[in-house]
Amino acid sequence: MTLDIFGDATFALLGKALDAYSLRHRVSANNLANASTPGFKRSYLPFEEELGKRVRWGRGGGKALPEGLEGLELKAQVDYRTESREDGNNVDMEQEIAEMSKNSIRYTAASSMIKKKAEMYRYVISEGRR
Questions:
Q1: Helix or strand run (H / E) with residue 63
Q2: Distance between CA 75 and CA 15 in Å, rounded?
Q3: Which one is predicted more confidently, 42 or 51?
Q4: Are the beta carbons of 73 and 17 closer than 8 angstroms?
Q5: Can you tell me whether residue 10 is helix, strand or coil?
Q6: End-to-end distance of the chain based on CA atoms, in angstroms?
């Protein structure tokens, strides 16, 4: 989803976040579907970590994305760090459900922010008339 409305960086970032949360939900669903598959390794999407690597402190003391969101790939990674059960599977159902719940809250928050931002633009375009 590309949300580059009026060159607004907030829209672009929120659009990328919605893409990430949507993909993360599919990744978690796949992990849950394979929770009893011997040898299966869970996957995860490190969106916040990848985004954090791009954020720099700006001159005014705020944070900025000097390189923008170009090249920020949303790619699931296989988790080899988590300890596996005897059957070689490392999916923890409770952890996956908790991750899906957190992800759902993030998705809802990002979509609400987009809606509010769009309402602000609509208000400005209509010159304050409703």
A1: strand 63-64
A2: 16
A3: 42
A4: no
A5: helix
A6: 28
* β partners of residue 78: 43
> What is residue 81's predicted lDDT score, i.e. its pLDDT?
93
pLDDT of residue 46: 93
Please, which pLDDT band fits residue 104 given cuts at 50, 70 and 90?
very high
Q: How far is CA 64 from its chain centroid?
A: 18
| Cα dist from 39 to 8, 83, 122, whole Å | 45, 12, 52
Do residues 19 and 11 touch, judged by C-beta distance below 8 A?
Answer: no
Residue 126 near residue 37, CB atoms below 8 Å? no
**Local structure of residue 5 (DSSP, 8 states):** G
Q: What is the pLDDT of residues 48-95, one digit of tens each?
A: 888 888 777 666 666 666 566 777 889 999 999 999 899 999 999 999
Cα separation values, 76 from 13, 28, 108, 117, Å: 19, 10, 21, 29
Question: How far apart are alpha carbons 9 and 2 in whole angstroms?
Answer: 11
Please give the share of the chain, as a percent, with pLDDT higher than 70.
85
